[in-house]
């Protein structure tokens, strides 16, 4: 059944059958700009999970292929991450900090979402003019941990009361409803009856239930049913609930999958189980509004029934939490398998130009949510404006809101606020009044300031024929409202447009905030009024939260900062956010730019901006300026401009103080291996019976380094004694810049006698660079340490390791040792060997035909032996620093 986005929920005639089917399509990948490579995906994944080394190594090979998404299960069994295959889809599609994602045994809801992600990927590659809607967050630090504690499924014991003579699943609709009802422990009894026909083989059977005779023993049900760990009573309690839910939703049962519609779920909640319900579709609400509604419900403690549809069918599950990255937590009702945080906004493709709308017909996925509040004491009803058959007032492109005259600087009863350009986007004509609501910082309405027409029956009665504002009709009047700010206590307040319906009996409905509307945010402080946010009729953006960093700022590395940016005017726009680092001298030293996102009028969108701090700002207090490249679409033409993003609260510029030490990264994904003379890998062992010599090879991605030029050498640390063995490297010097990948460096060749390592003992491998005169191990700390050992060498214990005795400290040759850097200049230079005073080899470097070498060494006193091919012979010198 093919259901197009604008038809499905608007008419509500083509209700979708939601099946528990296991269809999993594989589609070919396409190579286009914007695709995320396997190596890039691994780097993203490693910020969230520990990636298997073999998987990481394969991702960095040339044979690694592009994919619509990349699934990585944590190597320790601590969750999974799904990385987007196209940067137009965002960075993460799914994430969990427990369990794993097994696509071969995944619930059909997981597979449906993955299939939808593949469709988005394909459409973005086929039609680059398409984009996905940005994730809009109310507050970046805002999150709700998963509400459900249940890990229920569709087979025994849940289907024990489905007596068909063969095993049938309970159905995803019934399972999703059951978990929500168990969460609320409501109702005690059902109400009413239902009967319907069910195909069974060649015959038709009738399924019936009188729900009023069912008592739901919530206290006997378990959050988790593990085989052998529940009683017959506990099994029957949940089986009765699932059977009743199936009959209440006219479930069509079969061995291959049991299906019901979302319409039937909505009806069953309200009719048979005493819930207040409202169904909302993504194509009716804006994506901003859709996610805001979900987050608002979850904050209040209400899990949400959620369904998704495609041309292959649909599935139902429960949304029960969200995180600060904008991902929604899903419980798929498949014994916990696949539960995690998933991207919802990615599923809404948008055409940026009129001629591109036809491309949307190639993508069909339409999330629907059902809000369900139990009708019991103390539980609030669902907001009237969310119900399907209600008026919905929203602002238009030309919307504006401002104070009439000067902004008040102290609380007063005489302030005047005007606004204009709103319309009714609901199906039902609006009859009533509009006004101004004053809300406290918790969102509670403190005061309502109606229009001057309120006493006459409302604004629409006075201004529109028939007294109603019809569907899609614009109200272009400029209306003034008396904003009574008197007697407000210290705190933060929001002034927002509101409306109230006039009912047929002449009574007024509740005041409701308009959708996608401007606002004024102010603070009252000891008799003064300060302004945190003001709307604009020109392109304008503002930070509405303090910036959030993923980690402490680190020099040279690509730091990721989350910026919550609000659109203060009434136009859709495409935006890229720029973060400019300005040092204490006022010089611009670095700029980070986010990817471009569609941002809604009066909506808040979180942008992820990469921010790199150069080494010269260590110890400085830097200003971070935020700007935006904004593109509006006006009569099919792109109009671009760069604007300043207003500071948080319009008065708090962002400064960061950079620590002088301890915050520098060099390498991202790093792979080290042992290689023989033929370049063949040998894991992490050097067996001298099989090999005459071997060397280490490190391949890494440069994520920082900030223009580092110098040696990167190896250091082996004895895991038993702590003894350090330094190894020279080839090349002896590297020029590193951020973004390089596949950079390789070899150690010197290790043979039986030139590197003293104890047989069978593990040595941790470090990668040493010299920073500000100090040796620093820059092997990534988040990686598992890489260790090697030797077998069948000449050293079986520490007693076998004998220092190399040096009896002379001649001072021939041009040698300097300053600031931790040993410089050697010598004609005919072949090798330089550095020893500790007890004769242990610290480092040996091959000159490779050069007459000068630079070696980084820590503080100390050393014996330096220089081997030449000239008459000077071997030179030895003691050096100290």
Automatic annotation (TrEMBL):
Gene Ontology biological process terms from the UniProt entry: proteolysis
Occurrences of domain Spi protease inhibitor (ranges): 35-119
Annotated protein name in UniProt: Spi protease inhibitor domain-containing protein
Signal sequence, renumbered to the chain: 1-33
Keyword 4Fe-4S carried by entry: no
Protein's organism: Prevotella histicola F0411
Molecular functions (GO terms): cysteine-type peptidase activity
Pfam family, one: Inhibitor_I69
Annotated keywords: Hydrolase, Protease, Signal, Thiol protease
Active site (UniProt): 172 (nucleophile), 315 (proton acceptor)
């Amino acid at each position: 059944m093919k259901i197009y986005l604008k038809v499905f929920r608007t008419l509500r005639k083509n209700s979708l059958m939601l099946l528990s089917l296991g269809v999993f399509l594989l589609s070919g990948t396409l190579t286009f700009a914007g695709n995320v490579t396997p190596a890039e995906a691994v780097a993203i994944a490693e910020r969230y999970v520990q990636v298997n080394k073999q998987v990481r190594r394969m991702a960095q090979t040339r044979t690694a292929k592009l994919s619509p998404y990349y699934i990585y299960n944590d190597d320790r069994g601590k969750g999974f991450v799904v990385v987007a295959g196209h940067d137009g889809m965002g960075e993460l599609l799914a994430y969990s900090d427990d369990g794993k994602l097994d696509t071969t045994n995944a619930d059909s809801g997981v597979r449906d979402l993955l299939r939808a992600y593949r469709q988005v990927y394909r459409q973005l590659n086929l039609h680059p003019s398409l984009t996905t809607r940005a994730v809009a967050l109310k507050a970046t630090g805002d999150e709700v941990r998963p509400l459900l504690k249940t890990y229920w499924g569709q087979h025994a014991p849940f289907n024990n009361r489905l007596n068909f003579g063969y095993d049938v699943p309970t159905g995803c609709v019934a399972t999703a409803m059951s978990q929500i009802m168990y969460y609320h422990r409501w109702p005690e009894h059902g109400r009413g009856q239902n009967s319907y026909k069910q195909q069974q083989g060649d015959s038709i059977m009738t399924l019936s239930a009188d729900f009023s005779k069912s008592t739901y023993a919530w206290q006997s049900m378990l959050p988790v049913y593990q085989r052998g760990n529940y009683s017959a009573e506990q099994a029957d309690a949940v089986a009765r609930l699932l059977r009743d839910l199936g009959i209440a939703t006219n479930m069509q049962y079969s061995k291959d999958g049991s299906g019901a519609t979302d319409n039937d779920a909505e009806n069953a909640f309200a009719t048979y189980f005493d819930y207040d319900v409202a169904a909302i579709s993504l194509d009716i609400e804006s994506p901003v509004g859709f996610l805001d509604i979900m987050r608002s419900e979850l904050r209040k403690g209400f899990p949400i029934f959620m369904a998704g549809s495609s041309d292959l069918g649909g599935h139902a599950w429960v949304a029960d939490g969200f995180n600060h990255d904008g991902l929604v937590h899903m419980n798929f009702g498949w014994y916990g398998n696949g539960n995690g945080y998933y991207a919802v906004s990615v599923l809404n493709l948008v055409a940026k130009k009129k001629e591109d709308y036809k491309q949307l017909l190639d993508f069909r996925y339409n999330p629907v949510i059902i809000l369900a509040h139990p009708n019991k004491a103390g539980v609030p009803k669902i907001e009237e404006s969310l119900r399907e058959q209600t008026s919905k007032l929203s602002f238009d492109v030309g919307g504006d809101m401002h104070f009439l005259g000067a902004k008040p600087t102290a609380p007063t009863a005489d302030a005047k606020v005007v606004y204009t350009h709103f319309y009714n986007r609901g199906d039902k004509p609006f009859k009533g009044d509009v006004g101004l609501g004053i809300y406290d910082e918790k969102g509670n309405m403190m005061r309502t300031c109606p229009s001057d027409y309120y006493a006459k029956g409302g604004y629409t009665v006075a201004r529109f024929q028939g007294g109603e504002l019809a569907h899609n009709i614009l109200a272009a009047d400029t209306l003034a409202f008396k904003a009574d700010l008197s007697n407000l206590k210290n705190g933060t307040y929001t002034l927002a447009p509101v409306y109230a319906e006039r009912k047929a009996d002449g009574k007024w409905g509740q005041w409701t905030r308009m959708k996608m509307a401007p606002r004024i945010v102010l603070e009252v402080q000891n008799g003064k009024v300060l302004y945190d946010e003001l709307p604009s009729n020109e392109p304008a953006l503002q930070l509405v939260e303090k910036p959030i960093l993923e980690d402490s700022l680190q020099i040279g590395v690509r730091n990721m900062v989350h910026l919550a940016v609000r659109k203060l005017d009434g136009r859709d726009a495409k935006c890229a956010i720029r973060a400019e680092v300005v040092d204490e001298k006022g010089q611009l030293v670095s700029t980070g730019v986010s990817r471009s996102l569609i941002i809604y009028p009066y909506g808040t969108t979180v942008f992820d901006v990469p921010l790199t701090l150069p080494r010269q700002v260590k110890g400085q207090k830097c200003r971070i300026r935020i700007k935006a490249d904004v593109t509006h679409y006006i009569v099919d033409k792109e109009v671009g401009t760069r604007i300043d993003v207003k500071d948080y609260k319009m008065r708090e510029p962002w400064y960061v103080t950079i620590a002088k030490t301890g915050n520098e990264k060099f390498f991202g994904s790093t792979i080290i291996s042992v290689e023989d003379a033929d370049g063949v890998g040998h894991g992490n062992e050097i067996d001298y019976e099989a090999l005459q010599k071997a060397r280490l090879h490190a391949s890494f991605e440069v994520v920082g380094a900030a223009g580092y030029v110098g040696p990167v050498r190896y250091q082996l640390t004895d895991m038993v004694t702590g003894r350090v063995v330094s190894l020279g490297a080839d090349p002896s010097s590297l020029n590193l810049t951020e973004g390089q990948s596949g950079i390789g460096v070899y150690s010197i060749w290790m043979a039986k006698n030139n590197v003293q390592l104890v047989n069978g003992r593990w040595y941790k491998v470090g990668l040493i660079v010299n920073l500000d005169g100090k040796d620093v191990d820059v092997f990534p700390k988040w990686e598992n340490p890489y260790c090697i050992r030797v077998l069948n060498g000449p050293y079986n214990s520490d007693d076998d390791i004998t220092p190399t005795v040096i009896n002379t400290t001649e001072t021939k040759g041009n040698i300097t040792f300053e600031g931790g850097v040993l410089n050697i200049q010598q004609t005919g230079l072949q090798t330089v060997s550095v020893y500790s005073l007890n004769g242990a080899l610290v480092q040996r470097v091959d000159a490779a035909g050069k007459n000068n070498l630079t070696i980084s060494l820590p503080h100390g006193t050393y014996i330096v032996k220089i081997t030449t091919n000239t008459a000077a012979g071997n030179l030895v010198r003691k050096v100290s620093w």
